[in-house]
Amino acid sequence: MRSNDCFSCHSIEDYTGVPSYKMIAERYDPDPQTITDLSTKVLEGGGGKWGSAQMVKHPLLKSRDVRNIIKWVLSLDADSVVSKLKPQNTTVYTDTLHPYIITIFDNNQRTFTGSMDEINLVGNEHIKPNNQVLIKGTISVTQCGKHFFYMRKSGPGKMNKEGSMVISDRPDDNEIMLELDPGKYPFEIEYTAKSDSDTLSLFWLPESKDYYEVMR
Ligand code: HEC
Question: Which domain holds residue 74?
Answer without folding.
Answer: 6-80
